[in-house]
Amino acid sequence: MLIQVKGLWKVFETVGGRVEALKGIDLNIPHGETLAVVGVSGSGKSTLLHILGTLEHPSKGEVTYSENNVFDRNDREIAAFRNSEIGFVFQFHYLLPEFSALENVMMPCLIKGLDTEQARMMAEDILDKVGLSQRLEHRPGELSGGEQQRVAIARAVVLKPKVLLADEPTGNLDLHTGEAILDLILMLNSEYGITSILVTHNMELANRLNRRIRLADGKIVDAN
Description:
Helix content is 36%, strand content 28%. The protein is of the alpha/beta class. It has a single domain, classed as Rossmann fold. The protein has a 6-stranded mixed β-sheet with strand order 6-7-8-3-9-10, sandwiched between helices. Helix 3 crosses helix 4, helix 3 packs parallel to helix 5 and helix 4 (116-129) packs across helix 5. The longest helix has 18 residues, at 175-192.
């Protein structure tokens, strides 16, 4: 089992009081699965994704990757694990506007310490894979919304992570472009075995994945 979540709670202390975003989540995710996380706004979907991606620490419970509790590590070790093992895609692409598509995709490689030429080769290869070999030197502002999201996906998977976490990756796109982005994610899952977990409101897209779980009030209320 790649990811095991046991008794996961997340509590936020706010000015308005205590908010329990997750309430005892148990979840097993095998290698290579595509999983949709659905539910209404405020149900805990993004919080779960952020904890799976080590962007947030749980208040209680365990998250293990290959039977190792990731939160037993120190912050530096967690950051290194996140950069090499987990790719993120969000509703907004968060590309650096002053850099080209190629330079944006090279960033995770350079952060990991790879030399510039190796980083360039890896970035060119994955951009070709996502159909952007003719757009390497274009900056984000010169790309369409779908192309921007393709660059964001290329950046997320350039290091061949074990897991891709996507939070409403098609939310800002029209239906046709959104379907093309999901096609790309499924292709990368099939070709590289990247376990893919998507938060989405789009049930048509969710139904194309291997499995779906629905959250409500911080709990899993349906899984199929």
